[in-house]
Q: What sequence folds into this?
């Protein structure tokens, strides 16, 4: 019976990580798993309230503005730009991780810098969107937008929108801070001394998770 | 004994030196987003496809995007099965989570509608006095 197993590697027999990743990376995965449930809880409670409401504001009516375009009716355009920025910054992050595997310090620094710029660009977009909505009269506890069927909407719509995009924005902010810390370490040569750039991978996992959450926020708030 | 990261034995992973795969994933993600936005505009202009069908498409495409981000960008698709399972299995809870809560929300809506003031209450139907009922 045992001979059949020995042909394969005995992952649980001790001596090495049964998950074939280092402790830190595994814990980052578990943290992200717990964070996925936090975001899941927020989005599902949003869905529950939306399902329990007779009518709901039309996202294409609410999110139709673009900076510098005045009152032009441009639904989805600005949020598509934000999505593009975040996907792009995810790509530069993978390229930083990729450069780290090849111990290319300069390239890691370059791609991390682009990732930070992408993160800041996304946050700036969100700041503009929030400010714009605020001036239209939307905030926690205030909702100027009517339901699709013309009835007065409750404040559930704005409460959920600001809470969930705010919580996501907070994640992006901490991601940018982490990226800056990592970039400083890269420039100082900390990882060169350590012999590997695994810290870039760990922070990269967090950054991609933030992108992943945005994919769901984009669908739940802007498309559905 | 001091527990350091370097003391753990990790199987060496082969790192592809080209970035082709990364860019391929990027184009897939971008392409899916463009399709989503395109469908949303098609619906706004023509009312086709209908809302229910469109929402179904959006949710499926969202999961495609999620798959590519997790499998390629987060590299989970290239990790060993033990790690994949320990991350994905707990997420199955979401199946119950979503169905139970959305169903609850839906039933709340119906309850409020049925119990709202002014709602006509149908008189309960008298049991049919047929010969097959209870015998006393």
A:
């Amino acid at each position: 019976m045992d001979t059949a197993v020995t042909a394969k590697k005995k992952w649980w027999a001790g001596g090495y990580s049964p998950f074939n990743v280092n402790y830190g990376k595994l814990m980052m995965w578990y943290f992200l798993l717990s964070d996925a449930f936090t975001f899941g809880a927020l989005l599902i409670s949003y869905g529950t309230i939306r399902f329990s409401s007779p009518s709901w504001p039309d996202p294409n009516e609410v999110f139709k503005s673009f900076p510098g375009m005045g009152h032009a009716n441009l639904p989805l355009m600005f949020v598509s730009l934000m999505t593009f920025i975040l996907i792009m910054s995810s790509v530069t992050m993978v390229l930083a991780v990729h450069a780290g595997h090849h111990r290319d310090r300069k390239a890691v620094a370059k791609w991390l810098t682009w990732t930070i710029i992408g993160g800041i660009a996304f946050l700036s977009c969100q700041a503009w969107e929030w400010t714009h909505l605020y001036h239209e009269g939307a905030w926690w506890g205030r909702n100027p937008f009517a339901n699709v069927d013309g009835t007065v909407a409750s404040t559930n719509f704005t409460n959920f929108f600001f809470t969930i995009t705010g919580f996501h924005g907070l994640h992006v902010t901490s991601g940018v801070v982490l990226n800056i810390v990592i970039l400083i370490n890269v420039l100082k040569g900390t990882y060169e001394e350590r012999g590997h750039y695994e810290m870039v991978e760990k922070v990269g996992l967090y950054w991609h998770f933030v992108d992943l959450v945005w994919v769901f926020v984009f669908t739940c708030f802007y498309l559905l | 004994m001091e527990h350091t990261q370097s003391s753990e034995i990790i199987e060496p992973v082969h790192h592809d030196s080209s970035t082709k795969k990364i860019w391929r994933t990027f184009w897939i993600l971008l392409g899916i987003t463009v399709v989503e936005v395109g469908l949303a505009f098609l619906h706004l202009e023509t009312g086709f496809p209908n809302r229910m069908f469109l929402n179904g498409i959006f949710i499926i495409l969202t999961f495609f995007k999620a798959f590519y981000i997790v499998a390629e960008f987060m590299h989970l698709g290239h990790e060993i099965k033990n790690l994949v399972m320990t991350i994905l299995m707990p997420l199955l809870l979401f199946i119950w989570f979503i169905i139970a809560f959305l169903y609850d929300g839906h039933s709340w809506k119906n309850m409020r509608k049925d119990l709202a003031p002014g709602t006509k209450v149908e008189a309960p139907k008298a049991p049919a006095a047929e010969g097959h009922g209870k015998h006393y």
